[in-house]
């Protein structure tokens, strides 16, 4: 099964329950948002537990999962911002990285 979500905390819950983050993609309509793509055989039940407020687990693992997802999310958003900046510059900085521009 595959589930797409924009909810960081739901995504962290899935990770703590052993589900796999298959992909992370920029949100097609919201510039500063991403879509987490999870795969796993128990996703539907876990989604229901989360929605009903009965999800429980290891708080330390949950915090680590949140931090990991945030890191990946912000990396993707920074890359998206850099690509848009490059396009606005007309390709002038096509090979530039964030550190060489600042």
Overview of the structural elements:
It is a single chain. The protein is elongated, with a radius of gyration of 17 Å. The longest helix has 30 residues, at 59-88. The N and C termini lie far apart (43 Å). It has one domain (2-101). By secondary structure, it is α+β, with helices and mostly antiparallel strands. It is 52% helix and 17% strand. A hairpin with a 7-residue loop joins strand 2 and strand 3 (34-39). Strands 1-3-2 form a three-stranded antiparallel beta sheet, covered by helices on one side.
In brief:
The protein is of the alpha+beta class and 102 residues long. It has helices at residues 8-16, 43-52, 59-88, 98-101; strands spanning 2-5, 20-26, 34-39.
State the domain count. 1
Distance between the termini: 43 Å
Q: Which structural class should the secondary elements be placed in?
A: alpha+beta
SSE ordering: EHEEHHH
Shape: elongated
Side by side, the strands of the main sheet go 1-3-2
Low-confidence runs = none
Biggest β-sheet: count, sense, barrel? 3 strands, antiparallel
Mean pLDDT across every amino acid position = 89
Compute the gyration radius: what is it? 17 Å
- The fraction of residues assigned to DSSP E strands is 15-25%
Helices, by number, come to: 4
Portion of residues within helices: 40-55%
Task: Jot down its keywords.
102 residues; three-stranded antiparallel β-sheet; 17% strand
SSE topology sketch:
Layout: E1 2-5, H1 8-16, E2 20-26, E3 34-39, H2 43-52, H3 59-88, H4 98-101
Antiparallel strand pairs: 1-3, 2-3
